[in-house]
């Protein structure tokens, strides 16, 4: 069996050249406690309107029906926080989450991992390698945590002690057996409850999210014509990460930011962000056609815009 240290040290230069800031390897297995928590989460209906979530539980928890039996997982992370984001926010009357201001991360992560996947296939021609960026219904945070990319925090996101939490995750599942001796990163949330206290919809209790209450879910996953208050957010929400000291103090102080041009704000955010509020269908497709929010349809976008405008009006009245 190959040792993870051996593979990592050999592939590290290529992984970094591809543009990944974090990487690690773990066994392809979801620990029992996580399986239990995920099942309870669904049983309690905490997945809100994401009816798709409970559909593939065998694949999600046991990797069944994948076409091969994965033995190991290579987990990769890439930062997405644009250094200009805070400045842009000052010029917008509404809010738009960091993860959605640039190019669709699903496409970017797939594209940048290609040289690595090709190299793995060339090096181990008798083994399978399958990459997922949300596309495979597997719990990426759990796998990335097991691979040492971060600890799973009270706001449920993965945080790295040096880089914070503004990073995307992608996993490569493989039937190549790799021996791993990872010591997972220690939970450093301590007694802090900043994320829980700041969430205006009370979606968080420590280490657990009620997705049905989360603003990100309202704006992106709820297709109903009416949604509850989104507090000015048109796409996604960053509140629980923005207030996190690991982003706010640690990562910011060190100037941790994305090196990838694709995740920097598209020009409309720099030139005239408020013009987004007036986009018609054609404009929406033009501006956001290759963004992560293109999954949100135009009707949802208009609904979110109207709600954000209402929030701005109310704020101005008080
Ligand atoms: C469904 C989903 C959502 C849902 C649910 C969020 C969630 N926390 O799961 C919604 C739409 C709300 C969402 C929002 C966001 N998402 Co999202 N999302 C996913 C997706 C597709 C699946 C995650 C999942 O399986 N959730 C199921 C629940 C059960 O998992 P969990 O909350 O982590 O629960 C664990 C613990 O909390 C704990 N737990 C659960 N219940 C209980 C109960 C008790 C008592 C205890 C002790 C523990 C416990 O055990 C669980 C298993 O370890 C992943 C991609 C993937 N394939 O994994 C991306 C992903 C998690 N999202 C991501 C991002 C970036 C976001 C947003 C920041 C986007 C935005 N700006 O709006 C927000 C963040 C909101 C938040 N605080 O989580 C990134 C996170 C990267 C990172 N550094 O962690 C991922 C990994 C996508 C990616 N490929 O990069 N997302």
UniProtKB/TrEMBL annotation:
The keyword Iron applies. One of its GO terms (biological process) is tRNA queuosine(34) biosynthetic process. The keyword Cytoplasm applies. Residues 176-209 form the 4Fe-4S ferredoxin-type domain. The lineage of its organism: Bacteria, Pseudomonadati, Spirochaetota, Spirochaetia, Leptospirales. It holds the Pfam family QueG_DUF1730. The gene is queG. Coiled coil: none annotated. InterPro entries: 4Fe4S_Fe-S-bd, 4Fe4S_Fe_S_CS, QueG, QueG_DUF1730. Keywords: 4Fe-4S, Cytoplasm, Iron, Iron-sulfur, Metal-binding, Oxidoreductase, Queuosine biosynthesis, tRNA processing. GO terms for molecular function: 4 iron, 4 sulfur cluster binding; epoxyqueuosine reductase activity; metal ion binding. This is tRNA epoxyqueuosine(34) reductase QueG.
